[in-house]
Amino acid sequence: MKRLTLHIFSFPGLLSALGCLLVSACTIRNDIPYPIVEGAIEAIEVEGQCDADGNATTKATISKNDRKATLYVDDTVDLSNLRITRLTVSNEAKIRPDSLHSKDAGRFPTVGFESADALTDANTRIDFRTPATFTLRTYQDYEWKVSVTQVINRDVRLEGQTSMVADPVNCVAVVYVTADQPLNAVKVESFKLGGPHGKVYPDPTGQIYDFTTEREFLVTHGWEEASHKWKVNVYHQVEGNTSAALTAFAMSTQARLTGEVQNGKQPVVEYKKAGEAAWTALPETEVAVAGTSYAATLKGLTPGADYECRMSVDGNVMGEQAFTTAAALPLTDALFDNWHQVEKLWNPWTAGGTAFWDTGNRGATTVGDSNSVPTSDDTCNGSGMAAVLESKWIVLKFAAGNIFTGDYVKTVGTNGVLNFGRPFESFPSKLRVNYKYTCMTIDKVGDEAYGYLKGRPDSCHIYIALTDWDQPREIRTRPSERQLFDKEDTHIIAYGELIRGESVPVWTRADIELNYRAYRRPKYILVVASSSKYGDFFTGGVGSKMWVDNFELIYD
User: Fold this and answer.
1) DSSP labels for 304-358?
2) For the chain, what are the domain ranges?
3) What is the C-alpha separation between 426 and 521, in angstroms, rounded?
4) pLDDT at position 18, please?
5) In sequence order, what are the residues at sequence separation of 6 or more whose Cβ sits closer than 8 angstroms to the Cβ of residue 433?
6) For the purposes of burial, counting CB atoms within 10 Å of the CB of 223, is it exposed (0-12), middle (13-18) or buried (19 or more)?
7) What is the pLDDT of residues 158-193, one digit of tens each?
8) Half-sphere exposure of residue 225, counting CA atoms within 13 Å on the CB side?
């Protein structure tokens, strides 16, 4: 009979470690991290919605990067009791308004809705006199600020009027008229102190009114029954006070002129280069007048030059200003001739030089090769180099070829963190590009929301944005913490894009027009080119390839 001998080897700490393991095995712990799924406002509409000028619209300005939504409403609704008519959110996030602003937080819908009219026993009214906070809950909480501004166009037009200042907080209006207008006999053409839908008592419209002393009126807005006592003072315009008569915002080849003018008068706008004798007058049709305000745009100016402009009425100069146009700054390294390689990584700048452009190559080369590379064999003019951006399946996922103004900061797993934008302070009118494109069928989908694109032609994408961000915009491509460029961002001053969903087999020149949305000075320029439009969502066609060369900013 064989004897079975059991040998026990003692290792320092082994028994105690086993004991701990047994104890821990008997303890149930929920330490699995929740996925990061962001909740965002996709659309929001309210009663009486309009744009900043009071024109009817249902479009809100939504910035997903800042988690802010901005809306405007007309003078028919009560800002303190405003009804949300539509609110849709991403990823089926649960909605919770803050109790400070909600009229009945317990009856506010917890999920997004396309129409408040279809809801039963719900109260979607919010006090929007100050910005309201909405918490969107997925696995985490995301706070959104929603701001609503009421547009009340107080249309007061008196004979001889030059300007008006209204203080709705203290209910005081001051109107200036020309020095030759008798204050005891002023014809009132319009007196809508309460806005287009408000009421005024007594209503002086159409009368000859005495404004030698302060007059009081009862004003009722379109959404209320109670009246407010307004005090109205009419004064003669002080000679030499032309600060409101003309303001110039200078760009590179244009200048936007705005100001106030006597009611019923047509202003004459003239300009010239500093030091020249002759003035050039704008045609009357190019000076838009609305009540006592006017606006005009000077075009065809020389970048980086000094100018003078003036506005006159009936031969009398009412306002004048000097301004300097912004210089026509070039787009740095836009010929794509400067590259260097470090092992598998191609970089679009000279070795030891300063980077202006970057690519997603640092992410691609963690598991594969660069998919944005230079070529000297196929350029737009037969010289130098061009950038070749190719969409590839790189071991684990789809990667679009791309190049952008900014920095590739780091790789998190197989996802990139980027900084978009380079410092820039000018006002180009176009981005001129040279490109060609091989379009493949979309065969890779990395986001369920874009599954409908599979089997369709891929698209290349080039876009440009001028922004007044305080710093470069951080971009994250990881789905659980995705933070992408938002072309509706309120910090975008101008934007333009080119999208092609078919092959462009020969080098083609195209001008991308910049659409200016605001008169503000840019701080950053962003230019992005990608071989697959939905590459940020790891969606596109393997083999789609775009060549780009000789980009140029145009000032005209």
Assistant:
1) T-EEEEEEEETTEEEEEEEEEPPP----TTTT----EEETTEEESS-TTS--SEE
2) 41-150, 155-236, 247-324, 340-554
3) 7
4) 32
5) 462, 498, 509, 510, 511, 512, 529, 548, 551
6) buried
7) 999 988 888 888 899 999 888 889 999 999 999 999
8) 0
- Beta-bridge partners for 526: 465
CB 371 within 8 A of CB 391: yes
What is the C-alpha separation between 437 and 543, in angstroms, rounded?
Answer: 11
Q: How far, in Å, CA of 142 to CA of 37, rounded?
A: 10
Name the band, by pLDDT with cuts 50, 70 and 90, for residue 308.
very high
For the stretch 422-466, pLDDT in tens is 999 999 999 999 999 999 999 999 888 888 999 999 999 999 999
Q: What is the pTM of this model?
A: 0.73
Amino acid code (one letter) for 170? N
Taking phi over 0 as left and psi of -120 to 50 as alpha, with beta for the rest, 479 belongs to: alpha
Same fold yes or no, 155-236 and 247-324: yes
Q: Is the pLDDT of residue 6 over 50?
A: no
The CATH number of the domain covering residues in 41-150: 2.60.40.2340
State the sign of the Cα–Cα–Cα–Cα dihedral 128, 129, 135, 136.
Answer: positive
In CATH, the architecture of 340-554 is: Sandwich (2.60)
Q: How many CB atoms lie within 10 A of CB 28?
A: 5
Q: Which residues contact 130 (CB under 8 A, 6 or more apart)?
A: 101
Contact 349, 356 (CB under 8 A): yes
CATH of 155-236, one of 3.20.20.80, 3.40.190.10, 2.60.40.2340, 3.40.50.800: 2.60.40.2340
Does residue 9 have a pLDDT over 90? Answer: no
Q: How far apart are alpha carbons 196 and 168 in whole angstroms?
A: 15
Instruction: Identify the pLDDT of residue 262.
Output: 80
pLDDT (0 to 100) of residue 241: 55
CATH architecture of 247-324: Sandwich (2.60)
